[in-house]
Design a protein that fits this description.
- It is built from 13 helices and 9 strands.
- It is of the alpha/beta class.
- Strands 1, 2, 3, 4, 5, 6, 7, 8 and 9 form a 9-stranded parallel β-sheet that branches.
- Strand 1, helix 6 and strand 2 form a beta-alpha-beta unit.
- It is rod-shaped.
- The N terminus is likely disordered.
């Protein structure tokens, strides 16, 4: 049996059962397959190198290659022309006859064939502006002249003064009505009094130009009633008052504002101001403005320590001071008594200045007193008449 199971000696040369004819064929042609693969790989490498070189802008035939590739990508391509550079002229070498070359005439590039972002714009020359005829400029306002107050006929207070009736040696009385322009009805009642009176309009009043013009037409003289700081801190002097806490520049600004509220006045007097008129620096600023403008100053004497009149006298400018307050006590008996006091001062000194307000009691008393005073030998005059008399000017 063992002998029957032995293989035939030729069975060793047979191929294994798992080796197929296809595997045998692959082994026979493996070298051929490897050679084809190597050639294909080499072709890929060479193609990549040649493709990168062709894609370069500076490679020969680059434009042709780009034109062939880009249409396939549906990207419109236009011919690109580089911007034209103008060569700067050479400077001649000193000591030689070398001449500067003529600049070449360059044609502008064809912008129609280039993309908008690649067109080199020509430098824009500034447009020539049309020559306009010269415009007439209005001359600036001339500065305010400095008026010499010692020359008659040149000062503003004289130019705006109301003509005074002949006194013929009779005592003169000037009645000043303060605080006009606030109460419109009482202001008009004061304007209706027999002329000539002196009407003092407060600068923060209403309808001042209309009221001042009406008073002027009625034959009255005008002054500005400038509000100033009182000693009593609890009393309000009104808008844009002159205060001791202000700088000199602010004082000038407020004085000029007050003087611009209406026209035709001869000067100013102070509304309140018992504190401010005691301040030499502030009053000096105010009086300097009045002197330049050719205006007079009437010191209402709300303080016995006022420096207004002494400073005005030192400056040689026109000024006066109040003699009587008519209505400090607002009763008919008191107002009449103050009018009698005014008469006594006028007889003694030749003139007197009384200040009142447009209170009903004061206006009623004046309406009765004015004809009586004339009958008693007194002459009712504007303020400027007494200022001129005291200055020895008539």
């Amino acid at each position: 049996m063992m002998a029957g199971m032995q293989r035939h000696p030729k069975s060793r040369s047979r191929p294994p059962a798992h080796h197929s004819p296809m595997g045998t064929r692959f082994r026979r042609h493996a070298r051929l397959f490897y050679g084809v693969a190597a050639v294909f790989a080499a072709g890929v490498v060479v193609g990549a190198v040649l493709g990168g070189w062709v894609a370069r802008d500076d490679a020969p035939g680059a434009d042709v290659a780009i034109d062939r590739v880009r249409p396939a990508l549906e990207v419109p391509v236009r011919a690109y022309r580089p911007p034209v550079r103008v060569a700067e002229p050479r400077q001649p070498v000193p000591g030689t006859r070398e001449q500067q070359p003529e600049p070449q005439s360059l044609q502008p590039p064809d912008t129609a064939a280039a993309p908008p972002d690649m067109v080199t714009a020509e430098p824009e020359l500034p447009a020539k502006r049309p020559v306009e005829p010269p415009v007439a400029v209005a001359p600036a306002d001339p500065p305010e002249p400095v008026t010499r107050l010692d020359t008659p006929g040149t000062a503003t207070w004289l130019a705006n003064a109301v003509a005074s009736p002949a006194t013929e040696g009779r005592p003169m009385i000037a009645i000043v009505i303060d605080d006009l322009g606030i109460d419109q009805a009482r202001t008009k009642r004061a304007i209706a009094l027999p002329a000539p009176l002196t009407l003092a309009f407060i600068p923060y009043g209403y309808n001042l130009r209309i009221l001042a013009k009406s008073g002027r037409q009625a034959g009255h003289e005008l002054i500005v009633h400038v509000n100033m700081e009182p000693t009593d801190r609890g009393v309000d002097p009104g808008p844009k008052a002159l205060l001791t806490s202000l700088s000199q520049a602010e004082i000038r600004e407020r004085v000029n504002w007050a003087l611009g509220r209406f026209d035709g006045y001869v000067g100013i007097n102070n509304h309140m101001g018992s504190r401010f008129t005691e301040w030499p620096d502030g009053m000096e600023t105010v009086l300097q403005i009045l002197r330049v403008r050719g205006l007079l100053f009437l010191d209402s004497l709300t303080s016995t320590s006022s420096v207004g009149a002494p400073l005005a006298r030192a400056y040689g400018m026109a000024y006066a001071a109040r003699d009587v307050f008519l209505d400090h006590d607002q009763s008919a008996e008191s107002v009449i008594a103050r009018l009698k006091e005014t008469e006594r001062i006028a007889r003694r000194n030749g003139s007197a200045i009384a200040i009142g307000h447009p209170h009903d009691v004061t206006v009623d008393a004046l309406r009765k007193w004015i004809p009586q005073a004339k009958a008693a030998g007194f002459q009712l005059v504007p303020l400027t008449a007494i200022v001129r008399s005291r200055r020895g000017e008539g």
